[in-house]
Amino acid sequence: MGVQLDDFTSRATAFLDANLPRKEAAKKFVWGEGSDNMSMFEEKSREAEQQMVDEAKAWRTKKFDAGFGWITGPTEYGGAGLTAAHERAYAAVEANYKVPSQSIFTIGLGMVAPTMLAHGSPQAKEKFLRAMWRADIVGCQLFSEPGAGSDLASLQTKAERDGDEWVITGQKVWTSGAHYSDIGEIICRTDPSQPKHKGLTAFLVDMKAPGVEIRPLRQMTGGASFNEVFFTEVRVPDWYRLGDENAGWGVALTTLMNERAAIGAGMGGGEVSMMTRITAMVHHYGLQNDALVRDMLANLYINYRVANFNNKRAMDKMKAGQTPGPEMSISKMALVNNQKLLNDFLAHVLGAKLQADTGEWGTYAWNQLVLGAPGMRIAGGSDEVMRNIVGERVLGLPKDVGIDSKSPFRDLKVGTQKD
Question: What is the Cβ-side half-sphere exposure of residue 235, based on CA atoms within 13 angstroms?
Answer without folding.
Answer: 6
